[in-house]
Amino acid sequence: MSSHGRNAPILNAANEKHGRERDAWAKKTTRIGMNMERRCRFCNAALEFSFVDLGSTPLANSFLTAAQLEQPEPSYPLHARVCHHCWLVQADAVVPAHEIFGEYAYFSSMSESWVEHARRYAATTCERFALNKHSQVVEVASNDGYLLKHYVAAGVPVLGVEPAENIAQVARSIGVPTEARFFGQDTANALVDRGLAADLVIGNNVLAHVPDINDFVGGLARIMKPDGVLSLEFPHLLRLIEGAQFDTIYHEHFYYLSLLAVETILAAHGLAVFDVEELPTHGGSLRVFARRAKGAHEEVTSGVKKVRCDEAAAGFDHIDAYTTFQNKVAPILEGLLAFLKQARADGKKVAGYGAAAKGNTLLNTCGIGDDLIDYVVDRSPAKQGRFMPGSKLPILEPDRIFETRPDYVLILPWNIQDEVISINRSVSEWGGRFVVAVPELRVLG
Ligand SMILES: [Zn+2]
């Protein structure tokens, strides 16, 4: 037992409160033996409790070429655990970062709703923080410049930091200065040495993807002006649990974040959250604003108080809130498999829509292949002509749906289901219907 091993008192307290439920979980909760002890990526405590174990799957963003179809495909355990000291939910580190980021096919600008989200965010922050030609905005994981280009248009100096060189080049080509490198303390020090000091540091949908969260957050704090603001967006763990969004768990996604855990992590780097907004993106996200901590009694908005209350009501400071999640997954897998098998038995054709990472988690956790779904379509030319990892379903152009007229279109990225349905309304002309599998199987339209 490690010096951090305080699980016995916690389990006793849990027993008093939820006796029967916890007894059932004592059997299911994965205990890690001394010889394979894993430690929290933030606080280094031993990770003793399982959040969800999804078996072994290929990397969710490793789309295959035709030549790779014939080669053995590596797969890795997909298992998220929770730290019972800082409540950080985290996936096991099983894959080197360069394998994850080597050929990252995601371009932010491909989704229309995302482009509008970015435009509004830039306009709002420019006004709220009085950004002008004397200000400096830095975005980490700035992708193809989808967000910073709006600041450039408003005359606000920007710098993007983006690990993928091919994507950084796209950003530069549209006038967004971008450094192609991983962000952390080393990069932050190099930028500060060059005189960079940021009024606004943006990290949207990147915090969950960084291998070393202390190195990353420390770097963010380093490049902020004394009165600078840090803005982070990340999918909210509360929504993941409530919506049974287990398919948002994949190897490239190291953390599943609550405000509780993020406030603890930021505080360790001298930062305090002063505002939180709840967003509908990615199934329910938080936008957190932080600045340097001033003292014991930080002033916070009602938004911060509301999310703190919601998380407390969900029991986020208690292990049961996390260890009961695995129970929500099995009925979803069974529901989707039963539907697809029945559709096959009835001679129906099924296509998938959206070659998203979450679709790969869903298909591969279910063990679905081309025996149950014919193909997947995606709007991204970078994915068309490739194959889904694991399931090996071919990825085709969206027009293929109108040529083959499937009976069912399974929308894999359920978070954009309204957009997918609205741009593909004519599917109903031949009686086709849309299906989503999470949080439960639903046939729409
Ligand atoms: Zn921890």
In a nutshell, what does this entry contain?
The chain is an alpha/beta fold and 445 residues long. The protein has 16 helices and 17 strands.
CATH superfamily of the domain at 108-295: Vaccinia Virus protein VP39
The fraction of residues assigned to DSSP E strands is: 15-25%
Count of alpha and pi helical runs: 16
Major sheet: arrangement of strands = 6-5-4-7-8-11-10
Residue stretches low in confidence (pLDDT < 50, at least 5 long) are 1-35
CATH architecture of the domain at 108-295: 3-Layer(aba) Sandwich
Bound molecules: zinc ion
Computed structural class:
alpha/beta
Q: Bin the helical content.
A: 25-40%
Radius of gyration: 22 Å
Main sheet summary = 7 strands, mixed
CATH class of the domain at 108-295: Alpha Beta
Give the termini separation: 55 Å
Mean pLDDT: 88
Total beta strands: 17
CATH fold assignment of the domain at 108-295:
Rossmann fold
What does the overall shape look like?
A: globular
Structure description:
The protein is α/β, with parallel strands linked by helices. Among the domains are: 108-295, Vaccinia Virus protein VP39 (Rossmann fold), CATH 3.40.50; 329-444, 3-Layer(aba) Sandwich (Rossmann fold). The protein contains 16 helices and 17 strands. The strands form 3 sheets. Strands 6-5-4-7-8-11-10 form a 7-stranded mixed β-sheet. A hairpin with a 5-residue loop joins strand 16 (433-436) and strand 17. Helix 1 (7-17) crosses helix 2 and helix 7 runs parallel beside helix 8 (213-223). It is globular and about 65 Å long. 44% of the residues are buried. Residues 40, 42-43, 45, 83, 85-86, 88 line the site of zinc ion.
